[in-house]
Amino acid sequence: MTAPTAQRGLRVVSLHVHPVKSLAGVAPAEADLDERGIGGDRRWAVVDPDGAKVTAREEHALLGLRAEPLPNGDVRLLDASGAALDVLRPVHAEPVPVGFSGQSLARPAGDAADAWLTERVGRPLRLVWQDDATVRPIRPDLGGEAVDRNSLSDAAPLHVTTDASLARLNDWLVETALERGEEPREPLGHDRFRPNVVVDGDEPFAEDAWRHVTIGGVPFRATMVCDRCVMTTIDRAALTTAKEPIRTLARHRRWEGATWFGIRLTPVLPVAAGAVLRVGDAVVAS
């Protein structure tokens, strides 16, 4: 990996907020920021009756549902038909055991939310919320420091991908298809990787070397390059699994036993009051 160099002239192309882990989210023009990343992002999650986390890796149907942030951290659940359920933060609910790394308790959303998810996914599920008092660290082996705070995201609060890297991956996917005598598929979008921030640029995978990133004047620290899992192979429309893009990524982007695309960031604390990220913000990385 090359030594980091300053990357200037970059801009935020889009922002993405996923209030409920593994559900589809929204793409706002701007988003508030706090110590756990974009405000409200991945503060809710789905678990089974025993508290074990349930994600779209196991239940693809979760990706067919959508969550919209509401004021004060509440959330609206929607299905493909538009049927919706507004869920208030369960601030007074007794915490229940959950199986998240670095977090053993969360507050249950209640029977209505549980029934809504259970009916649509077809198995008993519960919705839980990470309250404001919970301190979930970023693991040191994943680039965390003692002061860092994580949402219910896998490894760090903010996930970033770039147009340049996605374009290179789509070129590789065409090459792989032609080599195998297959018809090239439509280019993948960033939604396969569920980023929070998409950045433009013309140097594929320059982000691998970023250590310090400033977005619209807000400073972040890079924690790690993002290792990819089967979630990226789920077609967002059909909710079916194929071999790509992991098959092709593994040919070009595999080391240390994993396949890599995008980077993870955490805000440099303390986050200034009123900090906001906006589409069009300048991005400076080094």
Percent of residues in helices comes to 10-25%
Instruction: Order the strands across the largest sheet as they lie in space.
Output: 1-12-11-16-14-13-18
Work out the strand percent.
25-35%
Q: Which structural class best describes the helix and strand composition?
A: mainly beta
The total of helices stands at 3
What is the H/E string? EEEEEEEEEHEEHEEEHEEEE
- Based on Cα principal axes, name the global outline: globular
- Show unreliable segments: 1-6
Please outline the major beta sheet: 7 strands, mixed, barrel
Question: How far apart are the first and last residues' alpha carbons, in Å?
Answer: 14 Å
Radius of gyration: 19 Å
The number of distinct β-strands equals 18
Mean pLDDT reading: 96
Report on this model:
The protein is mainly β. 12% of the residues lie in helices and 31% in strands. The strands form 4 sheets. Strands 1-12-11-16-14-13-18 form a 7-stranded mixed beta barrel. Strands 4-10-9-8 form a 4-stranded antiparallel beta sheet. The chain is globular, with a radius of gyration of 19 Å.
